Amino acid sequence: MSNLFLVRHGQASFLEQNYDKLSAKGEAQSRMLGEYWARHGLAFDQVFSGPRSRQRHTALLAGETYRKAGLPWPDATIVEGFDEFSAEAVIEKALPGLLENDKHVRTLHAEFEKAETQAERFKAFQRVFEVIVGRWAGGKLHLSGIEPWSDFAIVCRTRLPL
Fold this sequence. Notes:
Structural class: mainly alpha
Order of helices and strands: HEHEHHHH
């Protein structure tokens, strides 16, 4: 029987200038994943990765660690269909209008602005993210120049190699 393992990617560089790279923690997570797979003797016939740097780097680091255990790791095939939607663009485009017209978003954003620790900033940002992206994905937020979630989902399904 075949197995299919789905891995999103290691922790990205959240709230950094370049989000599309693994954080030090994300790199460690990727290596730990390769160690886990090697320790359990899992075999891989194929590896697929999305096109984002953080996705490719996760596969690369997991594979390097796996290979160090003397096990064969296939080169990753990059699949455009595994790309992520541009959450950054959704938030950048939606936030100004929502701050002006939506009291709930204004309150959440103020909590984010007031957060003092990194953990508080992460939690506060997550609440803003969930509201904005949730509305966009639910078709309640239409943004000029941003592909609707429903279109993104259809295109992704047509690009998958499965």
